[in-house]
Protein arginine N-methyltransferase (Brassica rapa subsp. trilocularis), 615 residues
Amino acid sequence: MPLGERGGWESSESMYCGVETDFSDDVPSLLSFHISTGGFDYVLAPLMNPSYRPSLVEANGSSDTQALPVSGSDLVLAPSQWSSHVVGKVSSWIDLDSEDKVLRMDSETTLKQEIAWATHLSLQACLLPTPKGTSCANYARCVNQILQGLGNLQLWLRVPLVKSDGDSMDATSEGLNDSWELWNSFRLLCEHDSKLSVALDVMSNLPSETSLGRWMGESVRAAIISTDSFLTNARGYPCLSKRHQKLIAGFFDHAVQVVVSGKLVHNLQKGSDSNTEGTQRHPLRSYLDYVAYLFQKMEPLPEQERIELGYRDFLQAPLQPLMDNLEAQTYETFERDSIKYIQYQRAVAKALVDRVPDEKASELTTVLMVVGAGRGPLVRASLQAAEETDRKLKVYAVEKNPNAVVTLHNLVKMEGWEDMVTIISCDMRFWTAPEKADILVSELLGSFGDNELSPECLDGAQRFLKPDGISIPSSYTSFIQPVTASKLYNDVKAHKDLAHFETPYVVKLHSVARLAPSQPVFTFAHPNFSTKANNQRYKKLRFNLPSDAGSALVHGFAGYFDSVLYKDVHLGIEPTTETPNMFSCSISDAQHQWPFLLGRPLGSEDTETSLGLMM
């Protein structure tokens, strides 16, 4: 059964827990014991007798007549049971990079036979053993060959979670310095195939936090936790260290399945080995209960996160509001972002107070132009700011989309703003204003700040401003950050052309590893009346990874912006200064909130921990 309920999760988002088993030729009994009695959701089980060697069968001269020593006929379970309750485990003895020719050939034959059998059973996934030693070229070659003809079966490469940084080496790591490098070499030799994922063996000692963070951008499908990695609480029951708990919670948040492996190593209290019905209790049930407890104690997802679940790591092309007329659904998403318009209202209010002193509030009328008015949220925010500050306001609402203009007219009539608001149905680039504005308000920024209508359109619109006029926003800065994002890279790679790698996307980033802090790239200020104004920019940045992080693969760059609307009122999505609770979650829009993934993968450095970027 699933691990339980986490607040805010749909049933389809439930997490499951498996158990690693030994070989058994009685699969129905195996499932009955571990699933019906033990409560686990699936078994991670060998598909073939571990004593099988193709060379021995050939030596006996019976290879043509003898059936493969598999765990049982496909008829012992229904296809749905094979698919939902069994993850196959390829024999751990195989070593395709061995110096022993017989072992090497036996390994390749057995690997192909077991994957073929797993495909025949309609299994969803099959676990590949950890590469022996640091060389895995022939192993990866064979797996890559298998992947080319594979259907729906997913292959999980078993990799120990180790990195040598002082005391983090584990005895089972066999001298491996950094298991991420082993995984990276293997998946690159397999051409980054989307059907190849990783299953991490979680050891009792963990690498540093920054080293662990790299895995959050990888295609991790399972975390295999040995019973030896569990501590013992005061009552004698298994538990995990704080660092392990944090890691498992992170895995849950990235939909990584947990598998319990090993034998019972905790001396439980007397009587705990049977359940309420008096039947024998599964020896690993206490470990399963603890994993379920960790999942259930996670904080419920906020409403915003629940709505955004479907858009996590989903590539969207940026909006083109200059070329295309936006749809009503897109405008509705903009307008739901109440925090953004609250910030705009604050900025307009401060600008009105600075523009008109209190003693002249009843005499002077401020001219405010909203360029790109849409369906009127900035018009409303500006009028509310005028009411709040007791200033007189005259508004020009400039909008090129004739469909949105219809809504604007209805809004003005419904709210009784006819004496204050003049609607201009025209492209701002071609409109001749009847008078100069004191304040120019717009929301033309994209997720990277300067990737949509700014700064070019705002530079053109500043002709509407008085020499001492105020632009809201007054400035904005773009930021960039290197990331590992295996899923997004594979999604772009699926298009099989260079153009998609050179396209900036709007993404709700989730399964990514942020490798270094973001750095500022370009800054633009408005108004800019300089006759020598030029929007061409050049920037060279160097990103330094933390010394204990290890190597990393850069799949692309996340782009953010931070904008000063007016004085101390700011709006942005840069992680360290982001405006909280900004809300833009429609599939047709995310441009004002979610970061981009830019560029092609740069590769990894084996010894260097710094990255260079030129734009």
